[in-house]
Design a protein that fits this description.
This protein has 258 residues and is an alpha+beta fold. It has three domains: 2-128, no CATH class; 129-173; 204-235. The protein has seven helices and eight strands, in the order H-H-E-E-E-E-H-E-E-H-E-E-H-H-H. The chain has helices at 2-11, 14-21, 78-81, 104-109, 131-145, 151-169, 200-232; strands spanning 25-27, 31-39, 58-65, 75-77, 89-91, 94-96, 114-115, 119-120. A two-stranded antiparallel sheet has the order 1-4. It has a two-stranded antiparallel sheet with strand order 2-3. A hairpin with a 3-residue loop joins strand 7 and strand 8 (119-120). Helix 5 runs antiparallel to helix 6 (151-169). The longest helix is centred in the C-terminal third of the chain and has 33 residues, at 200-232.
Length: 258
């Protein structure tokens, strides 16, 4: 059922979607109040790399939307809030339209992904790094800040980088490992191509070779039957003699003394 609902949306003319949705009323979301609480995290996420002299704080955000909306004042049309001309996809039997502007709900949803200091980043601390990329980043970072940090701070930074690298390589979701196969154990398998590499004459000759091999096989099978028939008829002499001379009758032999 969901497939056919989405198919109907997909094949509906775009102007028809616009005129059918443009005047539909949707709530205009506003925040009654927002609260933020800051604390020092137990460890710095790998997705966040503070610069020297900066600290990392974890923010808990609570947003309470305005309730008891007035249908005449707190509702706007779909055309005012979104863009019905550019549907982005479908969820179930619902069409997904891009918003024309943010609202308190979208701001709350973007908190893990958008930061004024870091910009756009992945909230998954292990999802943004591959082992080789982090190793290159760690080398560049140490070369950049080694003249700005004291020996103790630099050692602390190196210890933190080692712990972070250990967390990355221990992540079971990492799929960028490079495996070196020993040369003696290397197997190369050619995939079949869409076009033959042999010219037509050689392809036809291959077919004749197949027919020749089939005829030789049939000849050997018939020869085996002939051998079996000889045995049944008590003909046990060697059938593969190239030349046989048979002398019959008697002849006078004169023996003289030399």
């Amino acid at each position: 059922m969901l497939f056919y609902m989405q198919a109907i949306w997909n094949y509906t003319y775009r102007d028809q979607i616009f005129f059918s949705l443009s005047n539909v009323k949707v709530p205009k979301l506003t925040a009654a109040h927002k609260t933020y609480s800051l604390k020092v995290p137990a460890h710095t996420p790998l997705s966040i790399t503070p610069k020297p002299g900066q600290i990392v704080l974890e923010a808990d955000v609570t947003v309470q939307l305005t309730t008891n909306l007035d249908p005449d004042q707190d509702f706007v049309t779909v055309a005012e809030a979104a863009d019905p001309d550019n549907p982005q996809g479908y969820k179930g039997n619902c069409i997904v339209l891009p918003l024309k502007g943010p609202n308190p709900l979208t701001d709350f949803m973007m908190v893990p992904y958008l930061d004024s200091e870091l910009g756009i980043h992945d909230p998954d601390e292990l999802g943004s790094w591959a082992p080789e990329d982090f190793a290159q980043y760690a080398q560049l970072l140490q070369a950049q800040v080694k003249d700005q940090l004291s020996p103790s701070d630099l050692a602390a930074l190196q210890s933190q980088l080692r712990e972070q690298y250990q967390s990355i390589v221990s992540n079971p979701a990492v799929r960028t490992d490079m495996v070196i196969v020993p040369t003696d154990s290397l197997y190369i398998e050619a995939l079949p191509g869409t076009h033959p590499l042999l010219e037509n004459f050689k392809l036809e000759h291959r077919a004749i070779d197949v027919q020749k091999a089939q005829a030789e096989t049939r000849k050997l099978e018939m020869e085996n039957l002939r051998y079996a028939a000889r045995i049944l008829n008590a003909q046990l002499n060697d059938p593969d003699i190239d030349k046989q001379i048979v002398i019959e009758g008697t002849a006078g032999v004169n023996v003289t003394d030399a």
